[in-house]
Structure formats: structure tokens, C-alpha cells
Amino acid sequence: MPPEVVHQPPPATRPLVDEFRLGLDAPICLTWELTYACNLSCSHCLSSSGRRDPRELTTEECFAVVDELQRLQVFYVNLGGGEPMLRPDFFPIVEYAIDHQVGVKFSTNGTYLDRDAARRLASMDYLDVQVSLDGATAPVNDAVRGRGAHRAALQAMEHLADAGFGAFKVSVVVTRENVDELDELRALAESHGAQLRVTRLRPSGRGADTWDRLRPTQAQQRQLYDWLLGRDDVLTGDSFFHLSAFGQALPGLNLCGAGRVVCLIDPVGDVYACPFVIHDEFLAGNVRDPGGFTRVWRDSELFESLREPDSEGACTSCGSYDACQGGCMASKFFVGLDLSDPDPECVLGNAEDLLGRVDAGVGAHGDPVPRPTADHSRPGVPVPSPVALRPTRRRSA
Amino acid sequence: MAVRPGDRLVLHPDVALRPERFGALAYHFGNRRLSFLKHPDLVAVVESLDGERTVAEAFDVVGVEEARRSSFLSALETLRSSEMVRAA
């Protein structure tokens, strides 16, 4: 459900979007990746997950983060990973958050969401679950997420439906391969009492290597836009605001909230501007620093700079700037464009020439194309790999 | 159905308000909806809905002039339809 704006009375200050652009004293919500451990190795993984990081936050440190979020009145967090259910303290962390007025939505590949887990989840209030699925059919899904991933997700969905969880979410990253399956994906979600959520593919993490092959074509972007219009039951996480340049704005904020109203806390406590920019250039601080998350959010130089008025750059002269706001910062960054360039998926084609100049690791303006800073992929494991029941298999001697 | 001045409303017990420069964020922990209250006076009205006084009385408490009341009524209607406020 997109946040709703109560339309009346007229604002006392400035338009809401301008308020958000200046940043709030606390995020509206945030993404918190609990672990880099994952039993899958999806080819578009934003966080290049696989192996747990030995520096990951302890249970007590996670509780302390929740305490801070409660004080800041951050009403909900999106927990993810990696596969968050791999943390042995997953349920204690979720329960602690919910008991402290921090609502939880978490993303899972479904492998560990068995009958008992589904019942336990269904018994909790203020909790939402998002099962990741990137194709209505196994071949399409598993080509990105690994052999067996489709079956694992479907099984989890069945367990949630059987346990009477209610309207959980089925979360789909839209790609060239699955854009034709959106109707089937929606029907599949509905048949389990769930709601479809679609998000944009980003060239982040391992996605840096697969983005160009998987991203929707220009014709498919139009197809997606037309499909989304009038389907208000489909959630988008405000992911597709760059499509608003086709004409009518899609529901939602239509604004990049990075460092202004959203951010990411990664498994080791590093705070990034958004879940799509795990890179030193977008690292604002760490929750273990003096002053904790609150100080990072309020005082970090990076976040303060993101709250400055934008220079619109190359998009200044474009009549659609108000609609798309120049698009996604992370997408530009990881394909080798400047942040003042158009979005690489600009629906008016304004980035085509620039993208054509990117070659062999050299960006459109002659600088090296940035690579994701942290890589937690499991060494020697193919991408994607068949579903494993443990993230790392150690062979006994 | 539109909210009427004589209605008695109350903030839903699952809803929390977070004060902001522009007004407030309202979050409903039950249905997970987020709303933006775009005016501090609207926040004051919502906060003064105690289930005892009527909507019109809440307007009086906050000092909402006659000319602005219809827009406040429609804002309350939106909030009621998303269960942020409900009948007392």
C-alpha cells in the first residue's frame, strides 16, 4: 500500500516532497540486512551475499539498534540479508523489535520457512513476510535464483497460506525474462492470499555483472508502466519512479529517499544511503560509532550532502525532470555514469549515448566503473547455484 | 460516509504519531499503513479526539476557523477510511 497523503488542509510549510528532500530527523523506514550468509547465490543479489561476515552485529547489538529505532519512532524496518532466517537469533530479534514498537517486514527466499516457522510467524502481530520469487515458472526463476529456488519459494508460500498468515507479499525483481509473467505472478500470489510486489533491477552487488543482460528493454519498460497503471493492488516500493516520465505519475512518493527518508544498515552495522549502494562512497558511518545510528543519520557528512538541493545536471533542460527526478542514483553509479547524468534506464533514451561510451570497465566520463566494495560471495560456488540447505558446506576431513 | 461535526472519533489504539516539521507521520501497526498529516493543526485535532468530545468540539479546542472546517472533515474522512481514527 503506498503511503497516503491526507490531502487537506493545505500544507503549513512546503510541499511534502520538498520536506522529504531536505531529510527528516529520523528515517520513515529503513532496510536492515541481518546477515551476509545465504544458501542461494542469486545472480542479481544487491549485497553479493553468501558467506556470513565474522564482524556481524551480535544479538545484543541488534537489540540496541532496535532500542534506538524505537526512540527515533522508526515505525518499521525491512529485514533482509543474505537470508535473515539463517541467523540463529532471527526470531528473538524479530520479537524484540515488535515488542518495542518497531514493526517488521522481512524478506526471505523461503528455504527455511517450514510449517513450524509459518505457524510461529502467523501467530505474531505487526509482522509481514516477503517471499522472493523472480519467475512464475521454475525455469525463469531458477535461471536467476538457482535450481530448486522456485520450489522452495512455492513451498514457503503454501506453508504461509496453510498457517493462515494472511496477506503476505510475493516480491519480484522485474527482468527481461519475467516481465511477460507479471499476470501469472499476480495470480500466483493471489492464489496464496498474498499480494504481489514488484521492484526494479539494480546494477548493484552481483547485479553489476548481470544488469545489462537482465534489465527490461525499452519496449518492456513501456509494457511494465502500462501494466502498473490502474493496478493499485500491486506494490512497487516506489521503485519505478523513473517510469513516471512516460506521462502519468505512478502512485507513491516519486522521489529518491536515499539518506533523506530511508537508508540501509548492513550486517556489520555499516550505514549506507540506500540498499542499492553498498560502496564506500555511500557509507555514512557505523551503528557502533559513538552516538550510534542516530548520530550517523543526523550528522554524517554524506547524508547532509544528500539533503542539499540537487543540481539537476544533464537533466535540467528535460521537460520530464519533475516526473522522474533524474532517476536512481545507485543505477547511475554502478554503470559508470555521473550522478548528474540521466538514469541509465531513462525512458526517453537520454542515457543511450552515455551508456554507449562505457566500455571495458571505463565509465562514460573516463573514470573506472565503480565495483561493489564488499563481496561476500561463497568462493568457488557458481552464480546462481542450486539451493543448498546450509550456506557454507564444510567437508569433514 | 463523510465525517460529520457531531461524530465522536478516537485515534486507533494501534496508531502512533511521530511529530514532524510539516505535521506528523501516522503509522498503523495493524494494517501497516503509513499516512502523512500535512498540517500541525490537523495533528492537534487528531490528538484532541478523545472519544468524549465531538469533532466540532475538537475544532473548537484547536481553534480551527469555520472556513477551514470542511477541509479538515475530509482529511478526517481519509484517516477514518484507513482506520487511523475510528468511531468512539
Give a short overview.
Chain A has 397 residues and is α/β, with parallel strands linked by helices. Helices cover 30% and strands 12% of the residues of chain A. In chain A, helix 2 packs parallel to helix 3 (90-99) and helix 4 packs across helix 6 (149-162).
Topology of helices and strands:
The complex is a heterodimer of chains A (397) and B (88).
Chain A: E1 4-5, H1 16-21, E2 29-35, H2 59-71, E3 76-81, H3 90-99, E4 103-108, H4 115-122, E5 127-132, H5 138-145, H6 149-162, E6 169-174, H7 182-191, E7 195-200, H8 207-214, H9 218-228, E8 264-265, E9 270-272, E10 283-286, H10 292-299, H11 301-306, H12 321-324, H13 329-335, H14 352-357
Parallel strand pairs in A: 2-3, 2-8, 3-4, 4-5, 5-6, 6-7
Antiparallel strand pairs in A: 8-9, 9-10
Chain B: E1 9-11, E2 15-20, E3 23-28, E4 34-37, H1 40-48, H2 55-62, H3 69-81, E5 85-87
Antiparallel strand pairs in B: 1-5, 2-3, 3-4
Helix pairs in contact in B: 1-2
The helix fraction of chain A, in percent, is: 25-40%
The biggest beta sheet of chain A reads:
9 strands, mixed
Residue share in β-strands of chain A: 5-15%
For the largest sheet of chain A, list the strands in their spatial order: 7-6-5-4-3-2-8-9-10
- Rg of chain A, Å, rounded: 20 Å
Low-confidence segments of chain A, ≥5 residues, pLDDT <50?
none
State the main characteristics.
heterodimer; A: 397 residues; alpha/beta; nine-stranded mixed β-sheet; globular; B: 88 residues; Outer Surface Protein A, domain 3
